[in-house]
Design a protein that fits this description.
The complex is a heterodimer. By secondary structure, chain A is α+β, with helices and mostly antiparallel strands. Chain A is built from 1 helix and 9 strands, in the order H-E-E-E-E-E-E-E-E-E. A 5-stranded mixed beta sheet of chain A has the order 3-9-8-5-6, with no helix packed on it. A 4-stranded mixed beta sheet of chain A has the order 2-1-4-7, with no helix packed on it.
Chain lengths: 151, 456
Amino acid sequence: MRPQLRSGLVGLLTAICLVVSACGSDDPGATDQPTAPDSSATLSTDESSPTDQPSATATKPKDTSGTTIDITFKGDRVDPNGVERRVKAGKPLTLHIVADKPGELHIHSSPEQEREYPAGTSDQKLTIDQPGVVEVESHDLDTLIVQLEVR
Amino acid sequence: MSLAALQTGTLPGLVPMHGLGGAKDLPIPLELAVTGATAALVVSFCVLTLAWRRPRYHDIRSGRPASAALTGVVDSPVFQWAVRVLGLLFFGHVTWALIWGPDLINNPALGTFYVLVWVGLVPASLLLGPVVRAASPVRTLNLLLARITGGDPAVGLTAYPARLGYWPAAVGLFAFVWQELVNPQSAYLGSVRIWLAGYLAIMLIGGAIFGAVWFERADPFEVYSNLVAKLSVWARDNDHRLVVSSPLANLSTIAPLPGLVAVVAVLFGSTAFDNYKDTITWQAFVRDLGLDATVTNSVALLVFCLVVAVTFTVAAMSTGVERTGPHAVPRTALPGLLAHSVVPIIVGYVVAHYLSYLIEQGQVTILQLSDPMIRGDNLLGTANWSVNYWLSFHPTLIAVIKVLAVVTGHILGVIAAHDRAIRLLPPRHHVVGQLGMLLVMVAYTATGLYLLMGGF
């Protein structure tokens, strides 16, 4: 019977496809954190951008004015933990960090950025040019620190 | 700059809390939301009291025949096979990235799955008609398997049980939105591999058992696309000829099968949840509740869908039909008979919620597709393109488009519901009998605008 034959074939294909997907899941990257070729990568500023580029990038060390947000990490807590802040598009923003151990921030701008900070006091400077809502999260605590409303 | 970094993979995947895409749209301004809601309310009551009293879109597949040349191309086996082969090649390309590509956030399989396919199928179906049906790789595989075994792809081992209707698709759609919005692993390839393996298996097994009708009832992507395509100008008349039709007439041909209400409830409820889950209020609630975030979010997603299903069912059943006599309509049939009117509301809300995401994350994905192994390839010639973020730099324009989309969807929904209601209702109930539906639609629109405002 033809339909039976097709069902048999489908069964075989299904088995193959499940095996392939299962093999795929064995790859350590599948369940753990994704591994990047260069885990210490931070966004580099590279000037080859056309005018309509996003560039939520650059640190502008000379300009110390603008908004500052204080962030304190202590144990497995962070303060603030999920607040909204309004910031101006294109204006420098400083994240003033006091931390008891080094860690990593995820800044969900377009494109996204990662910032590593050391133990102790440090400043992360960024300028977000593109209006929108940008979440700043703690990678280590898996929690939202601040939601930036960039206007 | 950073785009190069994204492509060459120097930027690893980001936190699991977050799906794809970076910055989100700003909340829409209060004045715009209020203007939109007021317009929706006024137009609704105008439709109710002033619009036509005889049904205009009476299930007829009317329309002007499309030009002979166009029909010739669309119906030719060469064209149909070309589309199928393209669909299969694209599927193969993405599967390659999915299984053998590195597990990074910039693997194009993720952007293709969540953005190009899931969000992109809405505008594609709106403009071109049932595109998923034409290009679906699972349909093509079913066809090829039938050819190999010498069978008929339309025929399976047994007939599809009519009472199942769209229920399998409702379950599949829920599985998709759960994977996208709740699964903490959503941005990792492993979870997408498992999801797609399950999808492929269920589709092919169902196709073998029930024949091709399975894809029309159970494939979440095809069912979603077919519903949206009913808002396009492309239709088929009773002789299966291609016709150009009014979108509202086309919409009225959606078959009220069992499970249709569940399908629209999942599509609408999940889009609302997607908007809501990013609010500070909800994130604080999940944190303070202290339960596992996956459990809390799963329950919330289900509740959002159920709220839509229940409110719609109650409103539809409150419509004042006759219980006896020649024009009697059973109340339990009403939600299904009116469910087509939620489709424009879904489309309006999807446009509002995902427009900038589709345009910007879609471009990012098209760039990534040239380099599926993330090793610097430029297979499709798109790797060196740059992403245009013009839209994001015009937040007021985005806000206006959002409100227009939501209000337009609302108006089309109200008209579709009105037209169906006057066909079902006895004349003396024409106005009062529709109030329930109208109120629930105004409530949906007001809630949608409130969510777009960043409310709650």
